[in-house]
Amino acid sequence: MRPKSDHASGGSAAAAAAYAASQPSEFDSIDPILHLIRFLPYGFLRPPRLRLKLPSSLALPSPMTVFSLVLLTYFAVVSGLVYDVIVEPPGIGSTQDRSTGAVRPVVFLPGRVNGQYIIEGLSSGFMFVLGGVGLILMDLALDRNRARSVRISFASFGISAIVIAYAMSMLFIRIKIPGYLW
């Protein structure tokens, strides 16, 4: 978008015209179908004039409420909640020990990258959320209006959260795919 000047003088008007001529316009396309799609429906269709008002009893949610909902949605998505609902995998698996014959629980589905147990997805999602919260804490540590001890606490907790999340995620990958990234 080109800048607008408050008062046009001879020199600035010429400079603005030269700047506008050098910038590509949204109408510079030579595609006729694009022009038809852009102008044809709006030649006879008009959007309705709606004067909608929000009810007075409805208030906007607080920023922390929105943040919590976004973080919860992020956790659900990266945990594979949609996969868990569609495929319905078991919570944990089991394997039989060859030497003793005892059945022991298995949390990670070994050898299958595109499959998971429910606990595996939840633990991986928690590690991703922990890393994201660590980044947020490190960002809060940059605020100069906070006390030095609070900034140091935010930074140390943020760095430790990122390190723990990274180490555990790499451990999860190595358990799931033996010999990967070695």
Structure description:
It is a single chain. The protein is mostly helical and 182 residues long. It is 55% helix and 4% strand. The protein contains 6 helices and 2 strands, in the order ααααββαα. Helix 3 packs antiparallel against helix 5 (118-140) and helix 5 (118-140) runs antiparallel to helix 6. It is extended. Belongs to the OSTC family. This is Oligosaccharyltransferase complex subunit ostc-like. It comes from Phoenix dactylifera.
Features:
182 residues; mainly alpha; two-stranded antiparallel ribbon; 2 strands; 4% strand; extended; OligosaccharylTrfase_OST3/OST6; transmembrane; OSTC
Topology:
Layout: H1 10-22, H2 32-44, H3 63-78, H4 81-87, E1 93-96, E2 103-106, H5 118-140, H6 148-176
Antiparallel strand pairs: 1-2
Helix pairs in contact: 3-5, 5-6
Task: Describe, in short, the structure shown.
Helix content is 55%, strand content 4%. It is mostly helical and 182 residues long.
Label the structural class.
mainly alpha
Number of strands: 2
Mean pLDDT: 86
Helix content: 55-70%
- The outline comes out as extended
Q: What distance lies between the first and last C-alpha atoms, to the nearest angstrom?
A: 50 Å
Percent strand:
under 5%
User: Low-confidence parts lasting 5 or more residues at pLDDT below 50?
Assistant: none
Q: From the alpha-carbon coordinates, what is the Rg to the nearest angstrom?
A: 28 Å
Q: Strand order, main sheet: write it out.
A: 1-2
Put simply, the count of helices is 6
Order of helices and strands: HHHHEEHH
**How would you characterize the largest beta sheet?**
2 strands, antiparallel
